[in-house]
Design brief:
Two copies of one chain form a homodimer.
Chain A: E1 2-6, E2 13-19, H1 23-35, H2 37-42, H3 45-61, H4 63-74, H5 78-101, E3 108-110, E4 123-129, E5 132-136, H6 150-158, E6 162-165, H7 171-187, E7 195-198, H8 201-209, E8 213-219, H9 222-234, E9 241-244, E10 249-253, H10 255-274, E11 284-290, H11 293-307, E12 312-313, H12 317-331, E13 337-338, E14 349-350, E15 353-358, H13 359-362, E16 378-384, H14 387-396, E17 400-406, H15 414-424, E18 425-430, E19 469-475, E20 496-498, E21 501-503
Parallel strand pairs in A: 3-20, 5-6, 5-8, 6-7, 8-9, 10-11, 10-17, 11-16, 15-16, 17-18
Antiparallel strand pairs in A: 1-2, 3-4, 4-19, 12-14, 13-15, 20-21
Helix pairs in contact in A: 1-8, 3-5, 3-7, 4-5, 4-7, 5-6, 10-11
């Protein structure tokens, strides 16, 4: 079957000269990838870094065309897509730096010694690549979390060949970005099969089940992510499956902060929840706002800002339809009040929605719908009358990717709320919005279940590379048979732990 | 139901004054543990280290009695148990050092900066404890991998309260070691509920399913481990389950090494496979030996050494019975020859067994039984006629915890065999036996599926602590609200990455 590209604004479709992959295709592609594991993973770190940089160059070289293609398929504004492409190129170069830094190898050397357990032999440990990695592109970031995104970059950086499953919402963009990455790989003489791309729903299932695949990553809905995670676990040889499944990210405004600058925060909220038409996994979805004057002003400002907005074109008609279904489902929960009254639209068109509920109703057993993520420009204001009500409601919320706290200087409520936040989320923000996810050494993009399938990992930032590695210890292995990272002379010049002491 | 302690030598049983935990008991114990998460995890690192050291002291202070109790329940020799207790105390002190070293926190600070993605806010990342950890004691190391073992030590070191499920093969030892650890905890005023112990098969199941439990570890059989792993995944909120499930660890002798010192290696093999009656998860179970004179001499020496051995008392009659069943099952595979002819014994008594098969038969589809772990003093010699036959047979073997290679200096076969080994195991040994697992910074005890459920982790050595932590990033959080590990002045004096640079 041929792959179709749809313009969400017009609904126009065009058939691409690309076929969906059959099971046999997926098998062939993944076996090809496996056949180059040895060659690819053994290339010098410096070479690997160069290839990532070449890929970044090729993306930037083709920026104008890539952005135009993506704009047509996603309805995202040009400026946003240009920025996202810059970020994606930056991300590839950042992982090149992570590779040459070398700390990701976790090299550790214990020379032979005596111990209370008796003599201990020479033992050296480092991380090695897992093998072929399957990457599922996401819908909402056609560059940064799709074919050329962080999962691909971090897996290639780790020394793993990658097979990407393209997201159906932007197939032409997927093919074009893949072509750019491939040009970069070819410029560096990477082995054929280092990076591949497949299309089609069934191909995704086949990919998770392919014997040659050693690990997988996914960014998307809880339902699809859990289904694939279950398949990964049900394999004869289960594989790690890193699902980043989104969340109804809570944002808390303390009583003092609402009084001090409720209007300012309310305006910011409206902006953050509608950024990218709310199609961010870090979109704040739950606003915990105090009752009383400060909170009222905050909510009024948010409502007024949302009322002023035009409608949105979502990434696809399917995503818009899911959004409408979720919106209706929230609006029918008893005790929920709609604060804006825009038409829900049709096809890919829709509008921002804001609802309000009191904290006690929010935490009630029957109100589970309110605590789930709604993908799109919708948020729920939860009004609390006391800190106790607030904390109870927060403890009822599902763990999330982020937790944002708006507080004043020396706010008496801040320490306990930050504590709740760090227990329930992977990233905690004070006086800021969660919707920007920078690529850096300290980023954490992943939180407790259900926001991610593995809370120990991140899909953005330097540590994302750790998902694609496993440690191996080498005991009494002669120096000339050791991997370079563990040889006595440290030929790679990387940070290592030697006899328990970190050496930079 | 009361817990019974059995002496495997005599078969004598005594009823202990301990009741198996009901589901309600497990719920209560785990909820108590959860109630102290905040208190326990926030104690200073130095305090946590002191508590681990106090536990080590208490174990050593009670050594004579603990060893006597364990000897009665396990039939393991006194010298072995004394050594194991020393190792267990050393392990607790080692994790105290890991705690004060502080690198396990993975602290990283990115100050606010500009980037090609635009301005990036101040962002700081560290690892935080997961919560309550469930630990399943194993049968074969009543100290080092049981109540006071590495899983308990590493989880307490990470800042997680622990609930241990005692192994039924040594309940009195479990109770006595628990009492010693509890004395240590009490001496340091640890919160009540920091460490608990439950008994009973059903209690183990209830433990993995208890809502208050955030992670679990297990050392034991593939069957039991997989069943618990599946339950951990089937929870409403799945939890990480770290199963160390054993393996038929391959040991390869190159043609050159067999010619050079076949007799010496053959004697060593017999010793390694029967250490602790073969009840080690690192027991070498598959000996890949060349055909021809060198290999023949090696095998003859091993057979003669095994023939000279007395029988063994296994840890329990049940383990001995499983061993007999596995032995019979191996002996009936077509093409398999028995090399020693000792009686298989009855109750907990049995004897060492060595079988031989050619490499082609070993790799055949119908011979899967030969590639599985047999827990006990049994090994299978796989004779290969060429390096090609050897590599094919090795690729057919299941991934394992260890891979041992006996080679000569400048052995032409060594590099390719080490490569196979590092792909198929978590620890690779040259010219040594795999049965010693030292506690150190570089140890890796864990390999690809099915030897462990997560190849990215280890259950022995410093990195074992990583299983009980997850990262949290703090964005624009004022210094006085940050955890100590991330404050600008580095009050804990720990290694950190600052703006991308490692600082020791």
């Amino acid at each position: 079957m041929s792959v179709t590209s749809t313009n969400p604004v017009s609904g126009a479709q065009r058939v691409l000269d690309i076929a969906e992959a059959t099971d046999a295709d997926v098998l062939a592609v993944t076996e090809l990838a496996r056949s180059v594991v040895a060659d690819y993973s053994r290339r010098p770190l410096e070479w690997r870094a160069e290839m990532l940089r070449a890929m970044a160059d090729e993306l930037e070289g083709d920026a104008e065309s890539l952005v135009a293609t993506a704009a047509e398929e996603t309805a995202l504004p040009l400026a946003r897509l240009q920025g996202e492409l810059r970020r994606t190129a930056f991300q590839l170069r950042f992982f090149a730096d992570v590779v040459t830094d070398g700390a990701f190898l976790g090299a550790s050397i214990d020379h032979a010694t005596d111990s209370p357990m008796g003599p201990l032999p020479d033992l050296r440990r480092m991380r090695v690549p897992l093998g072929v990695v399957a990457v599922f592109g996401s819908s909402n970031f056609p560059f940064a979390f799709s074919v050329p995104g962080g999962d691909t970059a971090s897996a290639l950086a780790a020394g793993c060949p990658v097979v990407v499953k393209a997201h159906p919402a932007h197939p032409a963009t997927s093919a074009a970005t893949f072509a750019a990455l491939e040009r970069g790989a070819r410029r560096c003489d990477a082995p054929e099969g280092t990076l591949s791309l497949v299309f089609g729903f069934d191909a995704g299932v086949a990919l998770v089940e392919a014997p040659a695949v050693s690990a997988a990553s996914f960014t998307g809905s809880v339902r699809a992510g859990r289904a694939l995670w279950e398949r990964a676990n049900a394999r004869t040889v289960p594989i790690p499956f890193y699902g980043e499944l989104g969340a109804a990210n809570p944002l808390v405004v303390t009583r003092a902060a609402a009084l001090e600058r409720g209007v300012e925060i309310g305006g910011g909220l409206a902006g953050s929840m509608t950024l990218g038409a709310g199609q961010f996994c870090t979109k704040p979805g739950l606003f915990f706002v105090p009752t009383g004057a400060g909170g009222d002003a905050l909510v009024a400002t948010a409502v007024s800002a949302l009322d002023d907005l035009d409608g949105f074109t979502m990434l696809s008609a399917g995503i818009a339809e899911n959004y409408r279904v979720a919106t209706r489902s929230i609006s029918t929960v008893e005790g929920v009040r709609a604060l804006v009254h825009s038409a829900l639209g049709h096809a890919a068109q829709t509008s921002a929605q804001l609802f309000e509920v009191d904290a006690v109703t929010f935490g009630a057993p029957g109100a589970g719908t309110l605590r789930e993520e709604c993908f799109g420009p919708l948020a729920l204001v939860v009004r609390y009358a006391s800190e106790e009500e607030l904390v109870t409601a927060l403890e009822t919320s599902e763990p999330a990717l982020t937790f944002s706290l708006f507080a004043t200087v020396n706010d008496p409520d801040a320490p306990s709320l930050l504590d709740v936040g760090s227990r329930h989320a992977g990233r905690v923000i004070v006086n800021g919005f969660p919707t920007g996810v920078g690529v850096s050494w300290s980023m954490q993009h992943g939180g407790p279940w259900p926001s991610t399938t593995s809370s120990a990992t991140t899909s953005v930032g330097a540590a994302a590379i750790e998902r694609w590695l496993r440690p191996v210890a080498y005991q009494t292995v002669p120096d000339d048979l050791l991997p370079d990272a563990l040889r006595e002379s440290n030929p790679l010049d990387i940070p290592r732990r030697v006899d328990g002491q970190l050496q930079v």
